[in-house]
Amino acid sequence: MKNQKVVYITIIVLLCIFLPLTIIGFLFGNDKNLLEENPGHDTYYKGKIWFYDDNDKLLSSYECQTEICEFTIPTIDDAAFGINYYGEGTMEKVPVVDNKYTFITDGAVIYLYNVTNGTTLGTYKSVKNYNTNLENNAFITQNQNGLWGVLTIGSTLSSILPFEYDFVGLINKANEDGTLNTDKFIVRKNNKWLLVDVTDVEPNVVTGEIDNPIVDYTDQYIISKDINKVKIYSYDNYEYLTNYTIKDYILEDKYIGIITDNFLLIYDNLGSNYLKNITLTGITGEIDLELSNNNLNVKVDNEIIETIEVK
């Protein structure tokens, strides 16, 4: 009887020692299996998109609802309107911003997704970033009603342009860090074109309504263009050179070249400081301006045909 008690006590002691170890081992084994569910750390694996941080640590995964499931490919619709947009971006898909937010296309819907906690923050039809980085991590986005606005994505999300436009775009204007400048956006609303400044707390329309697409602008001029004619406006909607049929324009620093049927008119300041009138009779090829030191060179197919001394 005494020996039996010793055996029972021994069994109880062993259970106390090994049972917790068995439970811990089971849990650890399951955790290990979870971590190894995507052993190659593939972006797309077993019907999910997987998100890892810079240290290759799993953040979350998104379970796809359709077979068309991937990081969102940006849209660029600016060429249809002739806008001078940035067309050299190499970013084929929208990136993960600050290891936190990204856009996922799943079927016909684009989701703004928080990869740190696996939550969906909004649904969209299109995203535009010109295949590059916009200032302040801005993204031009189209909501499910087909209207465009602008979001900035950082530690928090904010809307800098409301979803009320038929088109929103940027010109090819870069900052020193290489990001596209987002101080002003070209927009279309009710078939009219406007330039909107977003540097203040509230968006500020800085032009009157213009009938044809705004394709470019400087600090002095708003340039509008349709199939046959270019129009150039001041910021208070004064139209320059109405007695000319302007076929095209060239911008170089503060200088502007106006191409008509027969002439290249070069100005320091439209309406006041006329620099040069160059006849285009017999000239074919691509016309350009180049500022070099105190000279403004007029070039055709990269060959200088005229040099204007400027200050």
Summed up:
11% of the residues lie in helices and 41% in strands. It is mostly beta strands and 311 residues long. The longest helix has 34 residues, at 2-35.
User: Structural class, from secondary structure content?
Assistant: mainly beta
**Could you name the ranges where pLDDT drops below 50 across 5 or more consecutive residues?**
21-35
The SSE string, one letter per element, is HEEEEEEEEEEEEEEEEEEEEEEEEE
**Number of continuous helical runs:** 1
What would you call the shape? elongated
Beta-strand segment tally: 25
Biggest sheet statistics? 4 strands, antiparallel
**Helix share of residues?**
10-25%
Can you tell me the CATH architecture of the domain at 247-311? Beta Barrel
Quick one: CATH class of the domain at 247-311?
Mainly Beta
Multimeric state: single chain
Mean pLDDT: 87
Entry keywords:
mainly beta; Thrombin, subunit H; 4-stranded antiparallel sheet; 1 helix; 25 strands; elongated
Write the layout of secondary structure elements.
Layout: H1 2-35, E1 44-45, E2 48-52, E3 58-63, E4 69-71, E5 101-106, E6 109-114, E7 119-124, E8 126-128, E9 138-142, E10 148-153, E11 157-165, E12 167-169, E13 184-189, E14 192-197, E15 204-205, E16 214-217, E17 222-225, E18 230-233, E19 248-252, E20 255-259, E21 263-269, E22 273-279, E23 287-292, E24 295-300, E25 303-309
Antiparallel strand pairs: 1-2, 2-3, 4-5, 5-6, 6-7, 8-9, 9-10, 10-11, 12-13, 13-14, 14-15, 16-17, 17-18, 19-20, 20-21, 21-22, 23-24, 24-25
